[in-house]
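So, can you check these tokens?
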Amino acid sequence: MSKIVSALLSTLFFVCFSNAQEFHVKGTIVDSDTKVPLDAATVYAESLRDSTMITYTITEPNGTFELEGKTDLKEVRLNFSYNGYKPLVMRLNLKPKIDLGFLHMEEMAEELQGVQVVAERVPLVIKKDTLEFNADSFKTRPDATVEDVLKKLPGVDVDTDGKITVNGKEVNKVLVNGQVFFSNDPTVATKSLPKDVISKIQITDTKTKTQEYTGQEGDGENKTINLTIKEDKNKGYLGRGSAGYGTNDRYQANGLLNYFKDKERISFIGTANNINNAGFSFDEVYDMVGNTRGGYNFASQAGLFNGYGKGITTSSTLGASYANKKKNQYEVNGNYFFSYSDSYNDQRTTRENILPDSKYYTETISNFNGTTNSNMGSAGLEFDIDKTLRVNMEPYMNISRTNSSNLKNTISTDEEGNKINSNETMTADDGMQRNFANRFGIIKKLDTVGKFVRFSFNNRNIENQTVSRLNSLRNIYGDTPSEEILDQQTQVDNDNDNYELEASFRQPLGNKLFLDVEYEYDYSQLANTRSVYDYDKTTDDYTLFNETLSSDFDFRNVQQTSSLSVRKDGKKLRYGVTAGYTFTNLRNQDYLKDIGFAKKYENLLFDMYTRYTIGKNKRFRLNYNSNLDVPSVSQLQPVPNVNNPLNIIIGNPNLKPAISHRIRFNYSDYNWKDRTGFYVYMGITMDENRVSQVTVTDEDFIKKTTYTNVNGNYDGYGGLGYSKQVKKDSTFTAKFNFRPSVNFGKNIGFTNGVQLEATSINVSPRAYFTFNFAELLELEPRYSVSFNNTKYNLEDMDRVKFISHNATFRFTTYWPENLIWGNDITYQYNGDVSPGFDKDALFWNASLGYQMMKKNGTLKVSAYDLLNQNNNTRRTTGQDFIQDFQGTVLKRYFMLSFSYKFDQFGGKKPGGGWRS
């Protein structure tokens, strides 16, 4: 097999390079009148026969460019484009080295100034901090999705789960015609929309609503992609549906229908499956292989599954979405989802518990079943009252019902293997949650450019009613054995209300310097009634009120923050300093026990940032933030929690708020000439008064846990990324990525009166390569290894070291015509896990599809976990433990499925295949 693969790869590379000649074209582009160099003009070469793009680049600040490429063509068309200038075109006979000298571009007529005038086929246009790609300039298969073309773009990476990064920055928002598409999950649009309906792909820094309206720059933490639909495709509908059934009664069905009319969009979406796909995937090859290659998951993004979904999940979702926009008047959108899920999961956990002078071991086996159904609706309303006043509102509502049961058995043994205690618990929960939230904002531009005032009011109101039953049997062994039985019912009524009022004012100080004044009032109230009833044999009901474990408290947190900021928004240099003073008032009253406390805190916090841009490609960022973290109610409330009879938890009302100091650094660069990207990042968070656990373990290994404040904890990270893209006209495209990273930290806690410190470091190099040959073959090998090292401050405790490996290979062919063959092979190895746990697995998914009905339909046979080796094993370490875990996974099945796609645009007859 290896010889066949080697021979195939050798043949491919021979075909790719045998007839290709390298060429190098250089020159300088200047204004024809002023002779001023044109920075970031686009230069690209295309074939004379079919206008297929061969390669492209952009000019440097001094107007120079170097265009390099490989092709077997003897003559090409060379294009020069710059916003606001007439395009320049020439035919060029290729030679290894060509110097064009100075090239003069003529400015457009005065009446067209400010209008974006570019050639239709320009692959890339740079406008300030925005990259704009022409989707048609990047060749893909005729049935490609937006995700497929994103993989072709320089500096853009899409991982196996659909997560998108641009030179190391995560894309957290994907818009269609400037509007949110169905949900906040970016993959909804990228996995469902066909590439052939997209005209432009714009990439920019993610901005807040205020930054968008006032013209401010984004903070550069994340990226936003905006997809512009072609004018002739922007009126009509497109849809897609698929259904499949397989062995072990596995099934999946998806449906999507979109209607477009200029800025108006109506969408319907639905899914049902029992293969762990909480969302969607319309991948031609890998969409029926469960959640290892997940589709987009708007359901979990919206909180519809309440944390369920681990193990094996049966789920169904129906959704509808509407969006419309009229420039300088309004923008509206609305979404509704109904979702149902049913999950079960069997887990096994072994834990080595670390004490100052000894160790003990616990093994836990649990069986979980849970169902949830949710109704979720949200809307976005934005109105421009006039050119200087904007009002927006974002209401949200979610009503969910959950039912679950969990059977758990735990056994603790000492270092000699003697059984010390055991615990068997059965819990059953029935809950209803109502969640309403709203954001309301007003922003008014004032008389001076950059001057504005803003008001916002946010609220979030959550009602939660839960009835829980707890049955437990705890046994203590040894010289004085004992047995304790708990049979209780708990009723919880929980009302959590949060209101936030914010007012800010910006005053320009001149020369891109601004002063911001801001005031924020934040009010939170948690009213919780927890009534615990013990079982009464005489009445055969839960009627014995347990006052010790019950509570009826009212917790209030009021924070007021006043801040001043000075910001500089220069063309190359941007920086800002913020000083804020926060008053915190905490009050808690337990009416049942007639106990309470009141706390007041005052804190001075600072934020600082600087960002420097070098040319169009290089960016340097340095940030410092300080944040206040108030302890949670469970950490403060002095009421015992016995949900786990082996670990009784009680809060500490004397806790102080924690203050975290966070420093982040980032540098990024992309070389358009060489198609290489590089970035490096690092950061560290250091805490004052971090809330940490204090645990006392008795001779029977029963824990009692509370909390205290400690100093000295920290968490850090760092890494770099390097990418290289190689392209030979339309024959092949190859990308290489190398991304090593490191995470480290120190965690401090207390066990039996002794301070325990766990210092950990994780080093994880990653490399992956993608190769596409003539849209007939795709290869995607990936490999990562993780080195984990944890050191404890106990003399008798050795370092804990373990290694995990992950290797993935995707092999997809689109030949012969209409036949699609896909293989997705993953090997995982978890070193040093405990005996009885699976250390490694070879996980192989495969599919064979045949396109029919003018390529509108695809009939496919899929195999999930072909070798039946899938597992879910992992090792983790903590402050005072080393733990191995294994849970339920989806096992081997085969599925036959059929998918169909259709569209109708601009009054044309319905068709399929996402016509160009």
